[in-house]
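[agent] plan:
  1. take the single chain provided in the ticket
  2. run structure prediction with default settings
  3. attach structure tokens to the ticket
  4. add a short note for the reviewer (M.T.)
[agent] executing step 1
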Amino acid sequence: MNNLCTDIGYSSINKSGEELCGDHIDIAEQGETSTVVVLADGLGSGVKASILSTLTSKIISTMLAAGLGIEDCVSTIASTLPICSMHKVAYSTFTIIHIVNGEEAEIIQYDNPNVILLRDGKSVDYPTNTLHIGEKEILRTKIPIYENDLLIAMSDGVPHAGIGLSYNFGWQRSDIIDFLATFFYADFPAKTLSTVLLDECVKLYEGKPGDDATVCVVKIKKRVPMNLIIGPPSSPDDCDKMMSLFFSKEGKHIVCGGTTSTIAAGYLRKPLIPRLDYIDPDIPPTAEIEGVDLVTEGVITINKVLSYAKDYLRDNEGYRDRIYKRDGASQIARLLFEEATDINLFVGTAVNPAQQNPALPINFSIKMRLMEELADCLKKMGKKVKLSYF
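[agent] step 2 finished; step 3 output follows
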């Protein structure tokens, strides 16, 4: 096994007038080294399509993660899904991307637009084998993967974008490839790439999508460790132990909080240099300590990072702002969301007297809950997170 891992990001838009999306994504881990991603597109749109796609993606991802074959998955779907009274069929199209040991991608496709593989900014053709399972024709591929490869799966709402509007025959595969290729070297995370592509879809639909559309991007990247510490330990005697463990970890180091920064500066025997410029009036300024990659204020900054994380997981509307802003919260968000794959969170449990003022909106329990919520959001992004208390 190599040091490669997957960065997975996806975004969806609903058909105009529908409250539910008929597409669904499910991700399942197969042990510690393999990941199964399923994009399902339910027949039609609305509630029925949402049910079909959710059942399909959940069944396939669960069964494949448990080691069962695609034949078992398809036969189970055929016997499980309800019959559509209008079309007299019970199915959802699907795309499966199975990343094995960071070395190989198995791609299984049924009636969805073919997965795009971008390597070195160019589209790569890959061989497919055809399987016949019942009346269904399944395409199956196994290919080696390399660092910076992009695998893009989509529902048919994406190539249908612009039919009769911007394009006579929709957004052709070659056009989608050219659009994505312009962002290849921008080093955007998978989530941002999926958001950018869906934004373009909405423009081509002139703001009124004629179909549900979903994009899932799988980016192959090297593991990147990241470390964040906030709050002093419950016992002052443990300060050196906490800092020793923190700074011994591989990767970048983020120190949050005034007291924590003072302790870190003392441990490193370097001066703490504050900055007085408020880049964002709502976020306290950052500071500098030689040997630390980023020094920020504590709870107010982390609270903003958490709000960014929730937006990132929801529809990622704020990604344009976060790309360019230089305040502490935006910098933390970029480091944790876009760069990091493995994150160590060190949380000191000492009670800060300033946070016990009943006139303030933040207290100790809120700080702990913020870190737990942030850890949960990072896990939902696919990060490997270790939360340690001192």
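[agent] step 4 note for reviewer: The domain at 4-222 is CATH 3.60.40.10 (Phosphatase 2c; domain 1).
[agent] ticket updated
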